[in-house]
Each structure stands twice: as C-alpha cells, then as structure tokens.
C-alpha cells in the first residue's frame, strides 16, 4: 500500500467498497437460499446487526489510521506496531478471565516477533514519525476489536452476510472521512487503479474475507495470528507481481509466524460460544 500514489483514506475506502461489490451477489444468493438451521443454534437478531455495524467501524478505524500512518512513519515501524493487535486480543482474553496458557503466550510473542522481523527495525525518531506510530497503534487496536466483535457476530451470521455488512459499513465511514479530509476519490492513473484492484483481490477478498470465515469456528486470538500472515504475504505478492525479491529475513519471519501460530493452535481451544453458521 505504501507504493500506491493514492491518498490514504481513498485507498482504505476503495478496497472496502470494491470488495463489497464483489461480495454482494454472494450475500444475495445466500439470503435467497438459506441453509437449514442447525438444531439448537441461536438465530440471528437485531443485536447481531449492531455487532456487524460496530465491527465495520472498527475495521474502518484500522484501515484509516494504519494506512495514514504509512505516509508518516516508516513501513517497518508501522508494520511492527500493527502486529501488536494479537497481543491486545490476548489482553482482552486475560481481562475477561479466559484461560491463556504459557504455550499460547509463547506462540503469540514468537509470531509477533516474526512480523517485526519481516517488517524490519527502524529507530528513527521525529515528531511526524511518532505521530504516525501513534496512528498505527490505534489501527492495531481497531483490528483487534474487529476480531473480537466478529467472533461473536459470526456465531449466528453467515460469512457473506457478515462480510458484506462489515465492508459496507467500513466503506461508508471511510468515504465520509475521505470527503471531510479533502482527499480525492478519483482521478488516479490507470496503473494505480490496477494496483487498487490487485490489493482488493488479494489482501481484502483472499485475506480479510477468509479471516471472517474462520471467526465462526476459530478463536479471535488465532484469527488475529493469521492476520500477521498478511505481512510476509505482501512480500511474496510483490515478488510474484512486481518482481521485487523479498529479503531473506522475510522467510525467517514467516517461519517464526508459522511456528508461533502452530503453538497457539495446538494449545488454544476453538471458538465455542455457540454452533456457528459456516458460510
């Protein structure tokens, strides 16, 4: 995203808006052909729609603050700080008294360290960079809240309905933010539109949409760990599409993330608040 010659808020808006357009036919078909309800599973209600809206606003805050931070601080610092989101989810679990074993903590720390290794380390300090770091921190809190809230809503809502609601809400909030900030939503060069489409197809549809699907059966903590795969994934996409060869540290960091995920998945119980609607 840092390579796009498009303002921050429009980047965040378009990836959610374009993804909403792509998901809408699937959600419409799913609504017209609902699967038989699982015996004993709770039905969706107005509270779930509220959760979807709140989750969408959290997603908007994540994208809005994080993408903005990329233009103010280094990609390394922003990436490292956003990687803290899984630690916030663990902190939430601890605060509500959920059991968090040592292997889970070790896995989370290992995976987070792996994300930092992929992103690199930047020790430069300036007022602008510190402000960007602060925005990245808010962005990490936003995606952590998005995972936690989504873990509840997805117990009663199908993936397509939940995803469309989240992306649509996020796009609407980011549209308002972009207009208020005076950032242009159109007028980009053709190659920039192609990059936006590629970003939407990969990070949004193949990334966040898969995370939304997993939230029904996997704990938000594990899903937060999988989100870390976006970081080395971006390096691999750059290698495949842009000819940018990843640094050796990208593969070391990826190995650390996968090892940390394995520790957590083997130690953490699945999300079991209720039997979920899978798709």
TrEMBL record:
Keywords: Membrane, Transmembrane, Transmembrane helix
Residue span, EamA domain: 5-118, 131-265
InterPro entries: EamA_dom (IPR000620), EmrE-like (IPR037185)
A cellular component term, taken from the record's GO annotations: membrane
One Pfam family of this chain: EamA
Provenance organism: Nocardioides pocheonensis
Protein name as annotated: DMT family transporter
Residues passing through the membrane, by range: 12-29, 49-68, 74-92, 104-123, 129-149, 161-181, 222-242, 248-268
Record family assignment: Belongs to the EamA transporter family.
């Amino acid at each position: 995203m840092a390579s796009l010659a498009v303002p921050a808020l429009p980047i965040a808006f378009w990836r959610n808006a374009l993804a909403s357009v792509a998901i809408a036919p699937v959600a419409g078909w799913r609504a017209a052909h609902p699967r038989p309800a699982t015996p004993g599973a709770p039905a969706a209600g107005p509270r779930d729609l509220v959760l979807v809206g709140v989750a969408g606003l959290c997603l908007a805050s994540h994208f809005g603050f994080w993408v903005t931070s990329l233009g103010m601080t280094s990609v390394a610092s922003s990436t490292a700080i956003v990687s803290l989101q899984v630690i916030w989810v663990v902190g939430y679990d601890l605060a509500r008294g959920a059991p968090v074993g040592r292997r889970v903590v070790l896995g989370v720390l290992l995976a987070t360290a792996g994300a930092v290794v992929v992103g690199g380390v930047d020790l430069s300090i300036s007022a602008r960079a510190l402000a960007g770091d602060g925005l990245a921190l808010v962005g990490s809190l936003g995606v952590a809240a998005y995972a936690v809230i989504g873990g509840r809503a997805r117990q009663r809502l199908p993936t397509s309905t939940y995803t469309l609601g989240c992306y649509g809400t996020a796009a609407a909030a980011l549209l308002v933010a972009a207009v208020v900030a005076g950032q242009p939503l159109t007028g980009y060069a053709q190659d920039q539109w192609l990059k936006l489409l590629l970003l939407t197809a990969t990070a949004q549809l193949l990334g966040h949409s898969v995370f939304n699907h997993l939230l029904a059966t996997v704990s938000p903590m594990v899903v937060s760990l999988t989100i870390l795969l976006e970081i080395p994934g971006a390096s691999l996409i750059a290698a495949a599409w842009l000819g940018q060869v990843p640094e050796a540290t990208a593969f070391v960091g990826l190995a650390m993330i996968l090892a940390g995920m394995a520790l957590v998945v083997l130690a953490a119980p699945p999300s079991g608040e209720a039997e979920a609607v899978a798709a």
